[in-house]
Amino acid sequence: MDATQTIQQRTGDTKIDIALVLGSGLAALADMLEDKTAFPYDELEGFPGYGRAGGRVSGHGSELLIGKMGSKSVAILTGREHYYEHGNAAAMRVALETVQALGAKTLLLTNSAGSLDEDVRPGNLMMLNDHINYAGMNPLIGEATDKRFVNMVDAYDPRLRELAQNIARDLDIPLSEGVYLWYSGPSFETVAEIQMGIRLGANSVGMSTAPEVIVARMLGMAVWACSGITNMGAGMANETISHTQTKNVATICAQKFQKLIPALVEAI
Predict the structure, then answer these.
(1) Closest of 55, 52, 50, 110 to residue 77, by C-alpha
(2) What's the CA gap between 219 and 105, in Å, rounded?
(3) CB-based contacts of 192, cutoff 8 Å, min separation 6
(4) pLDDT band per the 50, 70, 90 thresholds, residue 111
(5) What is the CATH number of domain 3-267?
(6) Are 59 and 247 in contact (CB under 8 A)?
(7) Residue 56, pLDDT above cutoff 60
(8) Of 142, 184, 221, 229, which has the highest C-beta tally within 10 A?
């Protein structure tokens, strides 16, 4: 039984309006969902961890939650699988195909990222308006149909970005915007790589999201993505970058996401 059928056995014909993926340290955002039904990933065929032993990345959940956020029906993927975990750029493809099959036409993505912009410090939010695939991997490699030839112009939906900016302004939440550099990880970037990213025009750097955007665009979904800035890029500040720091600062970003995302969901 595929994941969609497993979910529909418990939710019936419930249609999803919007899907949301949570990044490192942002699992608390799942508390925004009411009347939710939980599906552990290891029970959903093709989802991260299905049929495979092994721990998840700390700071990430491993459930699909379906419930209400305001007037909208929302599916929350409480964690993602990164390329660096098992070398699979398409690790989130089935999960995204599933929420799309359940009706979601809009995908909201969050992540934790490092800032390459001196004016955007840790604890703030940076919305993505484009990305650079520095990792060089693509989740559509091996796709046998012409669906693999995805147009990536305006992959980050301009209407959703404008909507989010207006909402953030009303809520008095600083919201910058920039280009995200996808780095494979799991090691953090070198100082030289950060300087290269700056010269290429990147404003932030992280280890996720870009593959999900590519898959979502192939599926015809409108995409909005936003980073919680947890650190400055290597060499840009007197700090030791670590995953512990990422999780700790992400809790500050989560407080802003908890205001911004419900308002954005309601406005879509």
Answers:
(1) 110
(2) 9
(3) none
(4) very high
(5) 3.40.50.1580
(6) yes
(7) no
(8) 229
